[in-house]
Amino acid sequence: PPSEETQHGHIKGYYIGYRISQSPENYVFKQVETNPEKEQQSTYITGLQPFTKYDIVVKAYNSAGAGPKSSKITGKTLETAPPTSPIVQIESTTSSTININWKKDVKDKSAIPEYTIHYKSDDGDWKSQQLGSSVDRYTLTGLKCGSRYQLYMTASNSLGTGEPSSPVFARTQGAAPMSPQESVFLHPNATSVSLHLSAWKNGGCPISHFVVQHRPKYQSQWITSSEKLDMPREIHTIRHLSPDRDYVVMVTAHSEAGLTQGEYVVRTLPASAIAFGKRETGLPFYKNVALVVPVVVSSLVILVLLFAIVVCFRKHSQDRRGRHDYDNRKPVGDSLMMSEMTKQIPAKSTKFSHYTCPAGKTDYAEPYTCNDSAASRQGSDGLFATIKRCPTRPIYMSASYKQGSDAFCTQHSTTHEGSTRSEPASNEKWSNPRNNSKPMR
């Protein structure tokens, strides 16, 4: 290349001019782009006449245009030339192979001892594979899935290697991973979020690993949950999150075909919520002991409380009914109609007993109620009354009254035994000459 002082910028390529030496014809130029990976740039000039001298010049160009021509050099071709490179075609591809075939140039009459195929991926280095002259097809194996490859071939013999063929491009089958929907991929809990990595579609190329990052929705700094999650793996859990809060989760899936980033916004559940059907364990409801035991215990406690309430209500109802029945029966037992009481009292004729009080030397008459008059009066007016049984009150009796009562009882019993006493006169029943002035006690 030209010296740095004369380049005036980055050199993009060269124009190679050639013509038959000492010929008045103009130069024929061939354009060659620079290869930054090589310090020395080289190319082939083909289609020349054998055993002939040619003048060759070179001009460099950049974004501003082409520079001046270099000094010419002279070269002479041989009687026979290196072989012409074949024409390469792509037959088929798979996720890791490319099938190619080629044909020899019909104008090339030289002997070709071998072919060489050169290939590389877009982000890889050049590789080559030597092939015999008797084959016309080959399969490249061990290639990256879903990657684009560039290929060309050269033919060689004892005179050298011919000009490379035009490059061809082929892509192995497969694509970059495809991100899933949020409802399938993310399963939030109160303090964690489960990522179902198996929900990602690989696009035909196996996913090698994942990179998981997350952050609160209104913060800009990412927290790396995992630098590299190697596959295969089905579930990854982001833990130590705050309940009832929005988070942004970014997942990057890597494969040979490339990478795919998926960004999701998810909200954790409230602290008091129980995520039925979204369990990290994936166990059925009846096998999840941590969930079944509290439910069963709570149900038993509720049943016991209901039973106790029912028993208390029934007992209270029975007590109230018993008191009501007792109140209804009580007046019947304690109260008697006057008519019933009248029937119970034996009929007695009006009779006056006479007794003398020894202490005061006074005679007292004790009248008895006449039942006949009471019965006739009851039958005439039809009225009745009830008598309430009440506790008996203590009766105070003086000493003289008590002595008189005892004497009366003695006299009354003697009369019933057989001795008949003459009935006093009517004026003697209620009075005594000596006690007329004294009131009756």
Word description of this protein:
Residues 421-441 have a biased composition (Polar residues). Keywords: Cell adhesion, Disulfide bond, Immunoglobulin domain, Membrane, Repeat, Signal, Transmembrane, Transmembrane helix. It is found in: Membrane. The chain crosses the membrane at residues 289-313. Its main location: membrane. This protein is of the alpha+beta class and 441 residues long. Helix content is 22%, strand content 32%. The protein has helices spanning 4-7, 182-185, 289-334, 338-344, 371-381, 399-417, 426-429; strands spanning 13-20, 28-33, 53-62, 65-66, 73-76, 87-93, 98-103, 114-121, 127-132, 137-140, 148-157, 160-161, 168-171, 186-188, 193-196, 207-216, 223-230, 235-238, 246-255, 258-267, 335-337, 353-357, 362-366, 386-388. The strands form 7 sheets. Strands 1, 2, 3, 4 and 5 form a 5-stranded antiparallel β-sheet that branches. Strands 8, 9, 11, 12 and 13 form a 5-stranded antiparallel β-sheet that branches. The protein has a 4-stranded antiparallel β-sheet with strand order 17-16-19-20, with no helix packed on it. The longest helix is centred in the last third of the chain and has 46 residues, at 289-334. It is rod-shaped and about 190 Å long. It starts with a helix and ends in a 12-residue tail after the last helix. The relative contact order is 0.07.
- What is the strand content? 25-35%
> SS-based structural class?
alpha+beta
Oligomer: single chain
What is the rounded Rg? 67 Å
Estimate the mean pLDDT confidence. 76
Major sheet summary line: 5 strands, antiparallel
